[in-house]
Amino acid sequence: MPDRISKFVAELKSAPAMDDVFNPWHDVDAAHDQSSRAPMIRARQLRHYLSPRTDARYLLIAEALGYQGGHFTGIAMTSERLLLGHLAGRGIEPDHLLPGLTGRRTSSPALNRNGFAEPTAGIVWQTAIVELGLAPTDFVLWNVFPWHPYCPETGMLSNRTPKTSELQAAAPYLQRFMKLFSARRIISIGRKAEASLAALGVEASTVRHPAHGGAAAFRRQFSAAVND
């Protein structure tokens, strides 16, 4: 299975370039990365994150990578602050993310001394680990659009909704991703993810996205999906 994971990450890395889309496992963010080694670090972290989770019970699939999360960590719904242990006080340890590997930030410290924080990432991880008591390898976080779409007017430190054409281009990668795991339940986070999964004929429970005031509904609905 590690070979299949490595192959999948290589496929993500070598995907055809798209306008206003950042590929964190291939591209260097020249304005914000610490070094040209950043894509290699992010690819290693993604491989190490996915490899022990092939028998996960749940796949949690949201919309797309964000600049405060996977853009710099290489891992969906995971921020540098999570990776570096700055949320350990909330019960989320770096070893929960990357057992046996020391996580590394790839953003320049000049941007943020403690690394980027993503509210969605903190809510999802805290709900799963602390509130529901799931083991870190019980669930896998992913996105229907696995790369980071950004606003060209604002630059890479921004997020935008993937276009329909982009979601269509990403669909084969989503199918390959799901074949790597034996999860008994797929949970879509938000309606965009639900629609993309439905277009592939994938049955999923849908929960409210925790952003924009949806944290309480997300926690309630995620708990119901896990305990059903």
Would you spell out the secondary-structure blueprint of this structure?
Elements: H1 2-13, E1 21-22, H2 38-50, E2 58-64, H3 70-73, H4 80-83, H5 94-97, H6 119-131, E3 139-145, E4 148-149, H7 164-179, E5 185-189, H8 191-199, E6 205-207, H9 215-227
Parallel strand pairs: 2-3, 2-5, 5-6
Antiparallel strand pairs: 1-4
Cα shape: globular
- Helix content bin: 25-40%
Sheet/helix structural class: alpha/beta
Task: Quickly count the helices.
Answer: 9
Strand order in space, largest sheet: 3-2-5-6
Mean pLDDT: 95
Based on DSSP secondary structure assignment, what is the total number of beta strands?
A: 6
By CATH, the topology is Uracil-DNA Glycosylase, subunit E
Q: Summarize the main sheet.
A: 4 strands, parallel
Secondary-structure arrangement, i.e. CATH architecture: 3-Layer(aba) Sandwich
Poorly predicted residue ranges: none
Percent of residues in beta strands? 5-15%
State the order of secondary-structure elements, H for helix, E for strand.
Answer: HEHEHHHHEEHEHEH
N-C termini distance: 29 Å
CATH class: Alpha Beta
CATH superfamily: Uracil-DNA glycosylase-like domain
Overall tally of structural domains: 1
Question: C-alpha Rg, in Å?
Answer: 16 Å
Describe the fold and architecture.
The chain is α/β, with parallel strands linked by helices and 228 residues long. It has one domain: Uracil-DNA glycosylase-like domain (Uracil-DNA Glycosylase, subunit E, 3-Layer(aba) Sandwich). The chain has 9 helices and 6 strands, in the order αβαβααααββαβαβα. The protein has helices at 2-13, 38-50, 70-73, 80-83, 94-97, 119-131, 164-179, 191-199, 215-227; strands at 21-22, 58-64, 139-145, 148-149, 185-189, 205-207. The strands form 2 sheets. A 4-stranded parallel sheet has the order 3-2-5-6, with helices on both faces. β5 (185-189), α8 (191-199) and β6 (205-207) form a beta-alpha-beta unit. The model has no long low-confidence stretch (mean pLDDT 95).
